[in-house]
Write a structure and sequence with these properties.
This protein is mostly beta strands. It has a single domain (about 5-55), classed as Sandwich (HSP40/DNAj peptide-binding domain), CATH 2.60.260. It has strands at about 5-10, 15, 35, 45, 50-55.
C-alpha cells in the first residue's frame, strides 16, 4: 500500500511545486515547476506529485502537515 501524499501548510494562496524541493539532488528527481493557486476550499493538490498545499488559517487547515511556506 502506498503512503498518503505529503501535506504542506503554506502562508500564501499561490505556491510553486517542483516535486523535489526537499530531496537531495533537487529538481532532477522531481517534476517541472508548476504554480498552484489555492481556492476557496483552502487547499490545492499538485497534478504531478499529489502533494497537497493547505493555506494556513483557511477552511482546510487543521494544524497538521509540515512546513510554513513553499
Amino acid at each position: 500500500m502506498l503512503p498518503p501524499p505529503e501535506s504542506v501548510r503554506v502562508s500564501t494562496a499561490r505556491v510553486a511545486c517542483d516535486g523535489a524541493s526537499d530531496i537531495p539532488g533537487g529538481a532532477a528527481l522531481g517534476h517541472p515547476r508548476v504554480w498552484i493557486e489555492i481556492d476557496e476550499k483552502g487547499y490545492a493538490d499538485c497534478g504531478y506529485c499529489d502533494r497537497r498545499f493547505i493555506l494556513i488559517g483557511g477552511p482546510a487547515d487543521k494544524g497538521t502537515g509540515t512546513g510554513t511556506g513553499h
